[in-house]
Structures are given as C-alpha cells and as structure tokens.
C-alpha cells in the first residue's frame, strides 16, 4: 500500500439479521468473479487531543491491528465532502507494535499537517472500535471497489455502541458505480445510507453527546456558484435534515425531530419543483414521488404531536377536572402510538431506503444530468444568480394571484395559498444568500408571518378530522371534550382570520429582494 492515497467510500447501515442475505445476494455472486470473502478481526484505536482539536481541523489519527498481520497507523484528512460520498486524503504506514509513532510518516504533506495542527499538543487515546470485517474486491461495470461488512462495537471508556455497516470503497472508476451497486443490492436486502463515520460515533461517545434533533444552518450560496452546485447544496441540506432527525423518530426521542425530518422532505419537494424545468424526467419524477410517500408516513405522527403537546394542554389547564378531557387524551395517545408505528414502517420501507440512496447520489455527483437536454445542461451550468430571479418571480406571481383575494378565499383555496407561500418561503431560504441584502430578511419575515397564520388554519382543519376519527371510540364525556376542543379551534380560526388580511397587506408592501 502506498503511504498516501485518496479514499472515496459509500457507507450503508445494515441490520445484523440481514448480513447473511447480503452475502448470498445474486448480484454479488456475479461481481465477485470467484473471489472469496475474507474475514479479519480489526481493533482500531483513535487518537486526538483531550478537547478533540484535531477532529475540528478535519484530521483523524488511528492505530489499527489487523488480525495476525500486525499493526499500522493512519492519518486521514478531509479532502472535501460530496455529502454521501466523502473523499479523504489518507496516509498509512506499518508499525512494529501498537505504539503511536507519528515520526514514521515520511510524506511531506502529512508531516506539514501534523506539524501545523498537532505540534506541542498532547495526543491521547480517545476511543476504539473492535469489529470483524468481511471484505472482498468487486468488479462492477467499469469500476473496481472493495466491499467491507463491518460488525462490532465502538467504545469510549465504559460506553459502547453496536456497529453494523457496509462500506464500498472505490479503487478505480466512477463513483456512480458505488450507488448503482448499492441500489441493486437494495432489491435483495434492506440497506440504508449512512453519513456517519466510526470516528464521529466514537467522538460522540467520548463527549457523552446526547441525541438531539437536527436543524441545519442556511444554505451558503453565492451569485457566481453554478445552478447545479447550488441545487446539489440544497439537496445535501435536505438529506442532512432527514438523516439527522431519523434517530429521533426511530427512538421517539424528540417530537421536534419528526417535525424537522418532515420539513427536510418538504423543502426537497419545493427544490425539485423550483428546478423542475431544468431537470430531465426519470429519477427526478421518482424522487418527487418518493419524497411525497415518505413524508406522508410522518404526517399522522406530527399531527398528534401538535395536538397532544400544544393544543390539548390548553384545554386541560382550563378543564383540569373534566373526565372527558382525560379520556380524550388517552384516546389520542393510543392514536399517536399507532402513528409512531406507521412512521417506523415508513423508515423500514424499500421506498425510504431508495430515497436516501438516490438523494445521496444526486447530492454527490452529476447524476441528475442523465438524459438532460442541451438547454437544461446550459441552464444548470450558468450562475445561480442568473437562474434565481425568474424562479422566485414565478412563485411570487402565484402567491400574489391568490393572495389579492385573501379575504374571500375558501378553506381549500387558503390551503393552496399556504402551499404557495411555503414554496416562496423555502425559495427565499435557498436563494437569499445570493443577494446578501437586508431586504431578504424583511421579505422573509413577512412570509413567515403569513405562513404561521395559514399554518394555524391548516392545523385546525387537520386536527378536526383527526378528532372526528376518535368520536366512535369515546363515551358521552369524551364527545363533550371533542366539543370543547372544537370550540377552541373555532375561536382560534376566527382570531387568525382577523389577522390574515393585515398580514397579507404588510407582506404585499415588502420590496422584492431580487429586483
């Protein structure tokens, strides 16, 4: 092995119970070309400063024992992130024993990095991974890659977490082959995209980091960035929102996690609608359908979370001794549990796994361009500043066409306006950085005010339907409680409608930041 190389790999999560099915997958028998899977015991010890200052600079230092073959030490440095397909510089040298010895490296680039970030700092053992790796080289289409199935634990002190994942490391060829093979394998065994390294898991264990919901920073776009680069950045943000909040839904940790995961999917649907004219059909259509399907799998859970966490407590505070209100809560909690099961079913569905992999591919390289016309390729190669204005203008015209008659809109028409306002809001979030103006903030604030009111109206309509589904299961006292809640919603709707006209007027007077 050369001391220096570039590592490009795709990580996938796999349930241990499915590993044997993966090994026997028909497509693997074809691409192994007679090679046998070799299993090795790997113990990897990761080093950093006590405050993890090297990790913050994108460096990872590891000493590894490879079965009976001996020891090696490796330094990895971030070489840019293609979201689901990280690329890293990697330097590896053999060791006589398991003692860290950074002087063993001879490459000037790694020596410069270590001198810059590690000089005069205490570098200690922080965490380790202990696993069995089953690996084999594959030849798939025009690419050569290694497939490794890793099963074991990551450990920091007394704390440890199980690990079960599959890695595809590209040795030669185009990264598309990694995703294509993963998608083909996904037809045989459930595989889920992962964007977490073993090192990030170990660092979280070391720090005792609690699992929280994930809310991303704004997309950092610039006017001279190509439309394709901007689009992929937007996709990457949505993908991070989905994966960053998945654990909250799986383990039922934070209700905000379900909300943010759903928002991530909805933002991606808006992104595909905004760029629709510049994307070829095919996978773009498939992705929109998958996003809609998976988002619906979270709808009921979010609706009951809002009702149980925001609406019902207000009723309970006023009618604390009402038996019907207590009965209503119990019935709603049962429905919420059913909704949680439905959300878990969605997360375990083939559609969700397919969505993650294709989104990862689109965010990592120009997969979108397959089948694109010359005009679409030209548009996506142009600066995003040139494309953003007509995209925003198109959505704004839809909003104003509906909003000019806001005082006479029916409930379905208000819902349609809400969807347009949401698209305008997300479009502003996506492209606001291109303009870098205070007008963006003012315009966005007006949109948020409109979206909040229209969202309250929609929540009330949805909640009424959810409550009516409970009616056949409730006693007379429970039905009375539904009446109390319905009355509260009616008063809330009247209040929001009173403020809707003024909110619209204030929004309509905002200056357009893109013109």
TrEMBL record:
Pfam families: CHAD, CYTH. InterPro entries: CHAD_dom, CHAD_dom_sf, CYTH-like_dom_sf, CYTH_domain, YgiF. It comes from the Bacteria. Residues 224-505 form the CHAD domain. GO terms for molecular function: inorganic triphosphate phosphatase activity; metal ion binding. Residues 5-209 form the CYTH domain. SUPFAM superfamilies: CYTH-like phosphatases (SSF55154). PANTHER family: INORGANIC TRIPHOSPHATASE. This is Inorganic triphosphatase. It comes from Thalassospira lohafexi.
């Amino acid at each position: 092995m050369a001391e220096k190389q570039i590592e490009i790999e795709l990580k996938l999560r796999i349930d241990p119970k499915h590993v044997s099915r993966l090994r026997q997958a028909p497509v693997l028998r074809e691409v192994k070309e007679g090679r046998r899977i070799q299993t090795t015991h790997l113990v990897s010890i990761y080093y950093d400063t006590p405050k993890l200052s090297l990790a913050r600079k994108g460096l990872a230092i590891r000493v590894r024992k490879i079965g009976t073959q001996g020891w090696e030490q490796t330094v990895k440095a971030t070489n840019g992130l293609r979201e689901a397909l990280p690329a890293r510089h990697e330097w590896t040298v053999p060791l006589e024993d398991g003692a860290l010895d950074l002087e063993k490296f001879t490459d000037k680039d790694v020596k410069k990095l270590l001198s810059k970030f590690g000089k005069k700092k205490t570098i200690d053992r922080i965490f380790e991974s202990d696993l069995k790796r089953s690996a084999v080289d594959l030849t798939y289409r025009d690419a050569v890659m290694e497939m490794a199935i890793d099963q074991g634990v990551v450990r920091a002190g007394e704390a440890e977490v199980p690990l079960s994942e599959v890695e595809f490391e590209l040795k030669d060829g185009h990264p598309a082959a990694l995703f294509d093979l993963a998608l083909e394998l996904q037809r045989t065994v459930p595989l889920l995209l992962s964007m977490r390294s073993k090192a990030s898991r170990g660092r979280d264990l070391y720090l005792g980091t609690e699992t929280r919901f994930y809310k991303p920073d704004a997309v950092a776009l610039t006017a001279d960035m190509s439309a394709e680069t901007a689009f992929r950045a937007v996709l990457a943000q949505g993908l991070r929102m989905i994966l960053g909040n998945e654990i909250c839904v799986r383990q039922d940790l934070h209700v905000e996690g379900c909300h943010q995961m759903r928002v991530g999917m909805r933002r991606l649907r808006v992104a595909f609608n905004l760029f629709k004219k510049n994307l070829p059909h095919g996978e773009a259509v498939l992705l929109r359908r998958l996003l809609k399907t998976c988002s619906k799998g979270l709808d009921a859970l979010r609706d009951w979370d809002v009702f149980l966490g925001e609406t019902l407590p207000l009723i309970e505070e006023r009618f604390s001794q009402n038996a019907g209100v207590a009965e209503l809560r119990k019935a709603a909690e049962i429905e919420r549990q059913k909704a949680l099961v439905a959300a878990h079913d969605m997360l375990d569905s083939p559609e969700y796994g397919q969505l993650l992999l294709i989104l990862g591919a689109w965010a990592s390289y120009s997969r979108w361009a397959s089948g694109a016309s010359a005009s679409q390729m030209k548009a996506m190669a142009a600066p995003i500043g040139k494309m953003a204005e007509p995209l925003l203008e198109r959505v704004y015209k839809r909003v104003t066409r509906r909003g000019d008659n806001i005082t006479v809109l029916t409930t379905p028409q208000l819902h349609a306006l809400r969807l347009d306002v949401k698209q305008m809001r997300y479009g502003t979030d996506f492209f606001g950085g291109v303009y870098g103006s205070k007008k963006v903030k003012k315009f966005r604030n007006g949109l948020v005010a409109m979206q909040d009111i229209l969202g309250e109206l929609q929540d009330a309509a949805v909640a009424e339907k959810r409550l009516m589904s409970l009616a056949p299961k409730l006693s007379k006292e429970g039905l009375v409680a539904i009446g109390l809640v319905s009355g509260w919603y009616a008063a809330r709707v009247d209040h929001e409608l009173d403020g809707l006209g003024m909110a619209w007027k204030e929004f309509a007077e905002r200056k357009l930041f893109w013109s």
